Amino acid sequence: MRAKALIAWSSGKDSAWALHELRQQGEFEIVGALTTITETFGRVSMHGVREDLLAAQLDAAGLTPIRVPIPFPCPNEVYEARMAAALADAKASGVSHMIFGDLFLEDVRRYREEKLAGTGITPVFPLWGRPTDALARAMIDGGVETYLTCVDLKQLPLAFVGRRLDHGLLAALPAKADPCGENGEFHTFVAAGPMLKHRIPVTVGEVVEREGFAFADLLRDVPGRA
Predict the structure, then answer these.
(1) What are phi and psi of 43, to 5 degrees?
(2) Amino acid 226: pLDDT
(3) What is the SS3 assignment for 117?
(4) Strands 3-8 and 28-38
């Protein structure tokens, strides 16, 4: 019997690619996707993705959504309490592993390991330590269609938000920017790829700036919409 796992799901490329690789390996039964939702806005935290778009994505991924609502702003103790409750429910349902798409930030990995210590849930980091330039290119060449939904304006120009992550965008990134945005340069939404049963048509709507970040409002491109 395969071990049951949840995946920490941001709607972005790293969690999506981790799902793809682990499904190919077949070691885990991935039973759900855990996503923090900023309830003030009804959007995926930091990525700014609408809940209806997230729902369509998870349906295409064949994943059961596990929504963890948090306020804005969110005190750390509130975040940790709500995550702890979600993890306790997961453990009670038989989940023994938690999958993360983290790439190289040691402090982030250490935080996750510390918070899972003693819960009976083991963290898994399938993409850890990969060269990020090669990883970004592998995702693009592997058919992942992903868009930059959030850009840190201290690290990237406004013009990057809303763009598709492709080889042209990688070539245009500033020299100091990580190709996968692991230092927070950008966050993404995956509209198509080998981890989804079908493509989710999207259009880029309004771009807004808030607290040093730019967010592109991705909208489901529904046939017949005026």
Answers:
(1) -140, 155
(2) 47
(3) coil
(4) parallel
